[in-house]
Amino acid sequence: MAYKKKRRNDVEKTDIYQDITNMMLEKLESGVAPWVCEWDRKGGGLPTSFATGSRYKGINRLILMLKGDQEGHVSSTWLTFGAAKKAGGHIKKGEKGITVLKYNKLYKHNNARISEDRASTIKAAGGDVQETLIKGKVGLFNLSQTEGIDNDRNIDEVMTGHKNSDVAKKIKKIAKALGVKVVSSSDCGEAYYSVSKDFIAMPMMESFSSEDAFYSTMLHEIGHSTGAKSRIGREFGKSMSDENYCKEELVAELFSSFMSQELGIKSVLQHENYIVHYAKKLKEDNKAIIDAAGAAEKASAYVLGKLHKYDVTLKKRRDDPSLEM
After folding, report:
1. Is this prediction's pTM over 0.70?
2. What are the tens digits of pLDDT across the range 158-186?
3. Pairing mode, if any, of strands 48-49 and 77-79?
4. Which of 88, 123, 154 is the C-terminal boundary of a domain?
5. For the chain, what percent of residues have pLDDT higher than 70?
6. Could you tell me if residue 105 is left (phi over 0), alpha (psi between -120 and 50 degrees) or otherwise beta?
């Protein structure tokens, strides 16, 4: 039987949904949550596109952080085979890429496919253009897998410490921006978000193993609060056997991980006993982790948007004391 020769530096051709799910299941079944970042990173250490300088989001961020750590890549910058060539370099011989999701827009006018430039021209003239989002995949390589590319501007800055007081201020500001009340007391035995009363209960910081654990836990509960009907609106469920409950816990876990990375703190797994339920969910639905990552990314963007508006309002208030919040 003749086998098709694989191109050098090519990416394995697999079912990306199942591949991502298998990657997560391998970690979960070993008792580890793959989205937990246990090392300190500065914001610049998050997976970033060489071509655009923007950070990867959702499931792609999770994939690149997990695989990058597993394979020992020293850079947080990623690029395609073509981007490396365009930059005057190349991928090192024998290196393997990592498959991530890619979304492309398909434009049509009068049922005929058109280019993005043509679509812009038609829309500017008041014409009708149909847009469809097509989900595909693309292979990415770490900058450390390349040769001939000037990477001075891409050197990762690993954070060896951070100002927890600044983190605390920002998280408190996030809660205020969302309009969710946070109550912390010695009488509180566990952290939780009350859907009916829209508040977060937190044990005292001394109850946690570290300050990062406290902040990461609060972010988890803030993640739940974004699902309130008055905000994004998600179905919560009532117990772990409930599909919506399990999904919501995954969303909150990923939200906490993403926001912890944004703030430069270590994320901490909440509800370690839920790992078996997460694994079961992923086995039943190989798109569950991708959907949850998308929802967590949406929640993160929502929170950062609210935070920005809150900061703008604070500045206006400082400039004009007659204004009220």
Report:
1. no
2. 223 334 568 888 888 999 999 999 888 76
3. parallel
4. 154
5. 82
6. beta
